Amino acid sequence: MLEDPALPTEMSDPQLAPEVVSTWRDALRNTEDHELLQVIAADLVQARRNSEADLSILLPELRAAFAGATRSTLRANLARALAELNDEQSADVLAEAAATDLSVADAVNSALVRWRHIPTKDRWQRDIVDRDLSVRRRRQAIDGCGELRLVAAVDNLRTLVGNRREPLTLRTAAAEAIARCSEGGNLEQAKTLFTAEGDVGAMLAARLLAETELEEAKPLLIELTQHKNLGVSSVACARLAKQWPLDLVELAKPMVSHPSYKSRLEVVRTTGQHAGDAAPALLGPYLSDLHPLVREAAGAELVRLGREGMREAVQAEALAALRGDAWQGHAQGARVSVELELLDACPVALEMLNASHAQSRQAVCYLLGRLLPAEDLTPALKHAEDLASLRVKSPLEAPIDTELLLLMQAFGRTRYEPSETFLRSMVPKSAPFYFPLRMCGIWGLGKLYEGKAPKDLGEQFAGRLNDANNMNAEADPVRAMSAVSIGRMLCKDQLKDIHRWFPPTRDSYLGMSLGWAAEQLTGEAPEFPSGASRLMTRFFVLPQAARFEN
Fold first, then answer.
1. Residues with Cβ within 8 Å of residue 18, at least 6 apart in sequence
2. pTM to 2 decimal places
3. In 371-432, which ranges are continuous DSSP H helix?
4. What are the b/e assignments for 424-441, b being 16+ CB within 10 Å?
């Protein structure tokens, strides 16, 4: 059988050719071309990250090039290469350069942290409170102290956080650095700031407590989760989620209407992981959340819980979302129902085909198209006929074709015989429908008569396949699906029509479809010409959300 195409795998070269390294070394020694030196520096950084080659032999030349470089951009690139190659012997030189050149500091600060360079630690502690320095340089010092978790800098950082005359960006960065440096002692300052400075104080308090493990901090964090500011609430929720998840679970119901979507997202994830049997009921309301990330996370958590033994509770929430008023809930309810194959959702979907919102109708059509409803699909057929009639009579007022595509998919997958007349109306070239709809009708008829070889349909599909030689040729996707249905229905009388167009001269959807049809009719894998694809996807994919299985 023809197989799925393999996914390409990125490969990295674990070694570099010696001649490449030798070329770099010669260039570093001899060139005065600044642009070439910049290219070499960038290549060294990339090579260090993507290979296992030992580039330490280039360090003397790199140090010399850095010492002689005068242009700021070149110095920054060479400094980045020295840092990437972990040249700790250059720490003093790089630290001295970083003290006067911000571009070098940007390139090497993380390396100076990694090397725990003592003179740099001392300089950063002084720079924190030196108001004569630029904000950017002080911010680098604050971030460096935070990364080093430098307890000795905490007093200076606290002074900075409490000084209202300092820029808010520096105060916020200092609060974050304190949270990393100090295991305790932040709570009192957080309480003071929260009480004294309104929204700014709440933000600083949240940053101060971002990594706290103090049990006494929990009440203030819970209060901060209710703050209207997105940053404040999300930081507090993240801390509770990591340190005291059950306390965040208790906030699941009141947080449904919180203005911060990040906070709601944190609550959803924590609830799914820690709320146990209560999780489905707590997550259900979030299926209708206005933010896509939140409702999608709630849907994903419910699907996981349904697969882990809470199927009935999850089904109740999915059906409740489908019966609700929000199109967001309809979409997520349909998604959960499809992924867990909740067939009890099909009757609800049939009742919602005339919903007022287009997204709601598409959601239930998707549900019917992906599941195999055991119910009578008469309402779905009537809805499809009404949509098609509207398409013919008032094309500009007609809804997009996704609903029709998905409903016809349901007719084909369930082999719903009453839909035959409707599906046949899509086949003629003169049918007033875009080719995806005609393609879908042909696919549905092929599923309806799978293995039965009806002569009239075989001839009709062959006519669509062969319509390629005049000025008004049939669309290739329609020809391709005609070949698929000929193969599916095992219309051996039309094998000659398949062979007329197969093998293809180039890769194409039509060529793959012809190859698949030929295999169904002959039982033998077809021979593709040299250069044409021998791979076949397991699904024939149609635009606008309809998915056709072979």
1. none
2. 0.75
3. 378-393, 402-413, 420-424
4. bbbbeeebebebbbbbbb
